[in-house]
Write a structure and sequence with these properties.
The protein has 2 domains: about 90 residues, Carboxypeptidase-like, regulatory domain (Immunoglobulin-like, Sandwich), CATH 2.60.40; about 100 residues, Immunoglobulin-like (Sandwich), CATH 2.60.40.2890. The radius of gyration is 17 Å and the shape is globular. A hairpin with an 8-residue loop joins β5 and β6. The strands form 4 sheets. Strands 4-1-7-8 form a 4-stranded mixed beta sheet, with no helix packed on it. A 4-stranded antiparallel beta sheet has the order 3-2-5-6, with no helix packed on it. It contains no helices and 16 strands. It is about 0% helix and about 50% strand. It has about 200 residues and is an all-beta fold. The mean pLDDT is about 95.
Length: about 200
């Protein structure tokens, strides 16, 4: 019988207006402590299997604001994001696929987690569309780019009206990155991009 292989998960708080949270697995195993909006945990090694995930307001374990059953396959690298607006919080799984990358190349993708934003395009500094017509909960494939410093704009699909301008995105060679769009187009906290280094850049399973 084949041994189970370790997986790696990190948690992301992407629910606008929600308080900082504590996240537990199977009752008393804490995955995230006082995780604020817009923050990631480090990647955590976990055994594959089924987990009951409870999300509580930080420092208040009386009543979870979300309980969710989650299956973690073998040898997976993934981000588990708390998304949506209270009381409709949900967990959304974003896998970091383990794929090849060429020398002197970076890989970039876009993940739309802004609950009130329409479908959007991601446009670079030269006006080229990097990612087109991505709706809420959309996850694009990675695209290969030269390592460099980039500027992007988020533009509602079918318009030329930029709703977010993000300069100085530095992509290093042989690394995977995701652009996570979080926040609100109408209201506070406003739309922003999180640009983490993905675990498939450095984790082997």
């Amino acid at each position: 019988m084949q041994n189970k292989k370790t997986s790696y998960i990190r948690l992301l708080h992407a629910s606008p207006k929600a308080p900082a949270v504590d996240i537990y697995a199977n009752g008393d195993n804490i995955l995230a402590d006082d995780l604020s909006y817009g923050e990631f945990t480090p990647y955590l090694p976990v055994m594959p299997g089924s987990y009951t995930i409870d999300v509580y307001p930080a420092n208040n374990s009386d009543m979870p604001i979300l309980t969710k059953e989650l299956d973690v396959p073998e040898k997976t690298i993934a981000t588990i994001a708390a998304i949506g607006e209270l009381p409709n919080l949900e967990l959304f799984v974003v896998e970091d696929p383990q794929e090849s990358i060429q020398p002197n190349t970076s890989k970039l993708r876009f993940i739309h987690l802004s609950p009130d934003a329409p479908a959007v395009d991601v446009v670079d500094q030269d006006g080229a569309i990097l990612f087109k017509d991505v709706s809420y909960k959309g996850i694009t494939d990675y695209m290969s780019l030269l390592p460099n410093t980039y500027t992007v704009q988020i533009v509602p699909t079918g318009t030329k009206q930029s709703v977010l301008f993000v300069p100085n995105i530095r992509l290093l060679p042989e690394a995977f990155y995701s652009l996570y769009a979080i926040g609100l187009v109408e209201g506070d906290p406003y739309l922003e991009l999180l640009i983490p280094l993905d675990g498939n850049s450095y984790i082997e399973t």
